[in-house]
């Protein structure tokens, strides 16, 4: 029997602010509500660093500009957006790089709970979703991507990934078409 989890990635205030789409958060909220109604665990993954960013190398092109700063960032900016926030008891995974697996305990959390199927959502399609999908596929998880539960700054990149790249390793559905299985166990 397969056990699924909905993975909500990088839907943090600072990230959502950079990707304005008034329809995105309501769609994502619908996916979260659908998962909860079906008894599917919802796991939140977000990027976070210690004060001074000791986890960040100046050689890292994405995060390197942060290296050496005195603070770990504004807690409000790194908090999950209120329209897609964790509920009491939802696991929260803090990651140190783009993939939800990088520098986090996500793999251990999933394996201990017997989860072998991940349903991926998040911002950005070309960032956390792509990186997590690739790593999860290499770890032999079954995968589903909710195409409109993901968002990217470049609509064409989003389209190419969800229509041409992701289907090689995952089922790709819309939030409305996703019907989670109740039999998680």
List the helices and strands and how they pair.
Layout lengths: L3 E6 L3 H6 L5 H14 L4 E6 L27 H4 L13 E4 L10 H7 L4 E7 L1 H14 L3 E10 L3 H11 L5 E3 L12
Parallel strand pairs: 1-2, 1-4, 2-3, 4-5, 5-6
Compact overview of the structure:
This protein has 185 residues and is α/β, with parallel strands linked by helices. Helices cover 30% and strands 19% of the residues.
Walk me through what this model shows.
This protein is an alpha/beta fold. The chain has a single domain, classed as 3-Layer(aba) Sandwich (Rossmann fold). Strand 2, helix 3 and strand 3 form a beta-alpha-beta unit. The radius of gyration is 16 Å and the shape is globular. The model has no long low-confidence stretch (mean pLDDT 89). It holds the Pfam family Isochorismatase. This is Cysteine hydrolase. One of its GO terms (molecular function) is hydrolase activity.
Count of extended strands: 6
Helix proportion range: 25-40%
Could you give the distance between the termini?
Answer: 7 Å
CATH architecture call:
3-Layer(aba) Sandwich
Q: What is the H-and-E element order?
A: EHHEHEHEHEHE
CATH homology-level superfamily: Isochorismatase-like
Number of helices: 6
Structural class: alpha/beta
Across the major sheet, the strand order is 3-2-1-4-5-6
CATH class descriptor: Alpha Beta
Query: What is the makeup of the main sheet?
Result: 6 strands, parallel
Oligomeric composition of the shown chains:
single chain
